Amino acid sequence: MIQRVFVIICLFPLNQAALPLVINTWNFENAANAAWSALQKGGSVLDAVERGCSQCELEQCDGSVGFGGSPDERGETTLDAMIMNGDTMEVGAVADLRRVKNAVGVARAVMEHTEHTFIVGESVVKKQQLCSVPDQSVNESISLFCIFILQNVFPDPSKSCGPYKPKAKLWKPKNPNGNFDPSSHDTIGMIAIGKNGQVAAATSTNGATHKIPGRVGDSPVAGAGAYADSTAGGAAATGDGDIMMRFLPSFLAVDFMRNGAQPTVACKTAISRIKKYYPNFFGAIICANTTGGYGAACNKRPGFSQFPFMVVNPQTNQSQLQKVDCF
Ligand SMILES: *[C@@H]1O[C@H](CO)[C@@H](O)[C@H](O)[C@H]1NC(C)=O
Ligand SMILES: *[C@@H]1O[C@H](CO)[C@@H](O)[C@H](O)[C@H]1NC(C)=O
Ligand SMILES: *[C@@H]1O[C@H](CO)[C@@H](O)[C@H](O)[C@H]1NC(C)=O
């Protein structure tokens, strides 16, 4: 009993709603910090989630993999990513992306510089050949660079279906074999809520989990991997994507919040929906509403009883690792 009271006292101040807010799946602290720093510098919530997920792409987000020494990808490592603007309900998504590191940057370029929502595989590579380079000097300018590339091909993408060629040779990969670590399996999902309640969400993953070539998981699918709606909130999911994507848990959670559910309840209800059919599925979800309230939930199974996530808001004023008990 004493222990329980102590926990409540400790957690309460951390769970206060405050804006702006950045929240992301897993203990990806640098991603949270990168997103927060984008907001502090006056960036939009879209900038924040893009920067945050890019940081994870850079680090492989397993804490141990740097750029040096990764094996040749031989075209077998693919990335999936998506980004969603909760003000306009625009989505940019990419899947089966090869030879590109900054997948979320390309997803954003798809959202902002094409009329499309979801582009997969070879077509993305061809269309953005120069953008899709293995890159070890990725930094903040890379996605701007990608956008620049999209606008610098001929024939004009708005008038012709291609094939596209670059107008000028702008970029040369330093290492044509890439620097990707296929053993990294993590997915990041991130939500940012702006000072005025604007919502953005993004995900990025490398789909290297012994998959059949061509398999796409939940991460790049709007409503499954993440969802953002500035009139309701945002959510992002992680886990067994093949199962989770059948339930659109991120859409579901946001819709529960629209109907008045607190973020924690919305997250739990979305997980419960899946649990009903797949009691042993591996998965978790984070939820945030437009006033900065947030929560998370996960499905309890052997070896997975707590789900870590990162939170930054003016109350914490630095990225803070939080954990939710699975149920
Ligand atoms: C980021 O990229 C730009 C353009 O390639 C370059 O000028 C800048 O020095 C890079 N910054 C870092 C920190 O690598
Ligand atoms: C958002 O969530 C917080 C914390 O659960 C809650 O206090 C607040 O009323 C919610 N805001 C809205 C708009 O529902
Ligand atoms: C948050 O932290 C930054 C730098 O660490 C500091 O400048 C700022 O005053 C802090 N804000 C609050 C509200 O504590």
Automatic annotation (TrEMBL):
Could you name the domain of life of the organism this protein comes from?
Eukaryota
- Give the coiled coil ranges: none
In Pfam terms, one family for this protein is: Asparaginase_2
One Gene Ontology term, aspect cellular component: lysosome
State if Iron is listed as a keyword. Answer: no
- Site feature Cleavage, where: 186-187
According to its UniProt record, which reaction does this protein catalyse?
N(4)-(beta-N-acetyl-D-glucosaminyl)-L-asparagine + H2O = N-acetyl-beta-D-glucosaminylamine + L-aspartate + H(+)
- Keywords, in A-Z order: Autocatalytic cleavage, Hydrolase, Protease, Signal
Q: What is this protein called?
A: N(4)-(Beta-N-acetylglucosaminyl)-L-asparaginase
